[in-house]
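HUMAN: Mind making up another protein with tokenized structure?

ASSISTANT:
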Amino acid sequence: MKIKGVIFDLDGTLIDSMWVWDKVDKDFLGVRGFEVPPDYQKEIQALGFYETACYTIDRFGLKERPEDIIKEWNDMAERTYHKEVQIKPYARELLVCLREQGIHLGVATASYASLFTECLKRNRVYDFFECFTETSEVERGKGFPDIYIKAAGKLACSPQECLVFEDIHQGILGAKAGGFCTVGVFDKKSADSWAEIQQDSDYAIRGFGQLLQDEQLFREIFGEECRQGICKS
């Protein structure tokens, strides 16, 4: 079936931002007298902000409201997202290529618009996307298909007509459970699960440049009728 839509995860997939959350976690827990446990990021990576706040409260016995924790996290991360976070190499070139071919583009993210909107505008990619879907809009996190199904609906595409680009293993499994074709994207933050991502995704790439340089892979993923030539500029 012809690919009509592409849904991108943001953090770790489209934008290089996971380092920001490492610092937020370290600072947030540090002022409360805790170190970041080795498994903390893996436990929360498929969760939305509210679910992550509830998990953090339970795990560390905090006497705080999820809403207050979320605001603190956002305040800590906002300036860095707005001023420093960059998109991944060749991401913009790929978006140009796909839009030129009439493919509908959307985002499915655990982040909030207050963080990513200014970041994407500064990186000159915000207007490529027809819709943005946040985990706060659905009942379950990225280990389930809910967010991808909602994003596909906004693009007026069926799951079978969409690709999902994700950098976390739970996201790949959630999208596949919804009937989506999946492309695993390497990020150093999820390097420990890269073997699982490669095994369970339909395709796996080290970066977007790989798609722009490998015409056979590009056509295999997006369809034989897709033209790659414009991506090489």
Q: What stands out?
A: Confidence is low (pLDDT under 50) at residues 229-233.
